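As promised in the previous annual report, we have extended the structural survey to additional targets. Below is the entry for CHASE3 domain sensor protein.
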Amino acid sequence: MRMNVRKKLMIGFISVIMLLAIISSTSYFQYDSLNKNFTEAIDESLQKNKLVSAMQEAVLSEQIALRGFIIGADESNITRFNESHDDFAKSTKEFLNLKIDEKAEKIIKDLIEVEAQYREVAFEAIEYKN
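The corresponding structure token record, generated without further manual editing, is:
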């Protein structure tokens, strides 16, 4: 079978188009995979930041409630203190359920221990105030 110039050009053109389609589809799927991975990483990071902010807010709220009770002897501050502790416990539990490395897990557990110590001192101050 003899191939003339027209057939050779047509085969060359079709092969270039097929290679272009293969390269384009591979690039698209790689881009989609990369986009998905980055989106998951950013969402996880945002979730961690949100929980850390919630923990910080809960601890600050505990301090404000304790100070309010000590200064004003208002019993509603004790309720606020306990609610803030519950918020802190909820946030730390959610954080520990996320995918974190051992170092972060140790830091959170140390934070929980320090908060528990603070809570003991706070109850001693509340008993002393009563």
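The first helix runs from residue 5 to 72. The radius of gyration is 30 Å. These points will be discussed at the next consortium meeting with the crystallography subgroup.
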